Amino acid sequence: MELVHSGKVRELYADGVDLIMVASDRISVYDVVLPTPVPGKGRVLTQLSLWWFGQLGDVVPNHVISGTDVPAKWAGRAIRCRRLQMLPVECIARGYLAGLGLASYRETGAISGVPLPPGLGEGDRLPEPVFTPTTKAAAGHDEPLTFDEVAGLVGGPVAAELRSATLEVYRRGASLAADRGVLIADTKLEFGLLADGTLMLADEVLTPDSSRFWPADSWKPGGPNFSFDKQYVRNWALSTGWDKKEPAPVVPDEVIEVTRNRYFDVYQRLTGTPFPA
Ligand code: Q0Z
User: Fold this and answer.
1) Distance between CA 233 and CA 224 in Å, rounded?
2) What is the pTM of this model?
3) How large is the average pLDDT for residues 77-96?
4) How far apart are CA 208 and CA 38, in angstroms?
5) How many angstroms separate the alpha carbon of residue 229 from the centre of ligand 1?
């Protein structure tokens, strides 16, 4: 199959008119891929994404054709999807203040042109979820876009559809996850169009690689919160004196094992089913 795109932790192949999205066991921390894979991570993220696509099918249609009709060597960690005309916007919804949203709020009191009330701090829940789109930079960092800038890129009607679909996916996902002990601070979605103009949810959805997952029982406003999946390996990496630059240190087996179990745990919490390790 023809490799169309290779990301830090995933690959995209063409199979006739379809695409096959393949998730690897690679893990990145502070934007650096670790030399040590997390066995099962590609399967758990793929199965979680498929589960969410099923949960959200009544909110917005999606690009999934099949989670099983894929080459045997990628079984469990690949999705056959429809090839869409992708929209050049990262559609982010935020329900809590963290990361680049926090940085933007501290500088301007707003995120992507949406003003927020004064006095918010790191980790705070927002009065309501906000749509904070960014550019899709090929290299380097994504830049915030206002709604009007999104409208300039994709047209007003599609921009409005993107905003409402993004916020509805976030609301539904975050509400379900919160009931199961997982806070979703923010999430990044990608959308594309069918030839007839139908908006479709694409890529991966509500995985720990595309979202900030926090354990609800240890959430605290007013300071940094812990990443459900990567915190243990991040803490270990920093404890070695690593400077967050390439190359990252080789990770000990026990750190990989704890991290792998965090992914299985988040899958089980959200879906209610043990992950078939
Ligand atoms: C997704 C990406 C990945 C690297 C293109 N259904 C679709 N139709 C057309 N294009 C895409 C999709 Cl999902 C598409 N990406 C992101 C995925 C590896 C980059 F698996 N790029």
Assistant:
1) 16
2) 0.97
3) 98
4) 14
5) 23
